[in-house]
Specification:
With 111 residues, the protein is mainly alpha-helical. Helix 1 crosses helix 2 (37-46). It has a two-stranded antiparallel ribbon with strand order 1-2. It is built from five helices and two strands. The chain has helices spanning 3-35, 37-46, 57-62, 83-86, 92-97; strands spanning 68-69, 72-73. Strand 1 (68-69) and strand 2 (72-73) form a beta hairpin. The protein has one domain (3-97). The radius of gyration is 16 Å and the shape is globular. The structure holds iron/sulfur cluster (2 copies).
Length: 111
Amino acid sequence: MTKTNKGEQQSFVKNIIAITLSLRSSVRRRYLYYFKREYVNKMVKTRKGSCEGCNGLCCIKTRRCPLLNEGKCKLYSTNKMPFFCMVFPVDEKDIELAGVEDCCQFYWEKE
Ligand code: SF4
Ligand code: SF4
């Protein structure tokens, strides 16, 4: 196997892992919203930080969304932004599953 083939295979596997994890993040977020709404409301309310300085990495990792333009969501801060994008991240697990724990600017104070 050539070096290029091995590199391509590794990057393919990494992409599959990232997509699987982010899918889990997305499904979990919906589950929490529909079945644990109080928890979601509390977490979103107590969330600190903002979307600055990470160039929309969660959007790249989770969906490669076409609405992302130069690291910014075209719908950010508008009422057209999809609801489940607005509530991201719901908690630290959400950040971890989306694969953005090294860069996401949102956090919660420890109780
Ligand atoms: S709609 Fe905006 S926030 Fe949602 S995935 Fe696309 S670019 Fe990201
Ligand atoms: S990873 Fe966090 S800080 Fe970065 S765009 Fe996504 S929600 Fe915003």
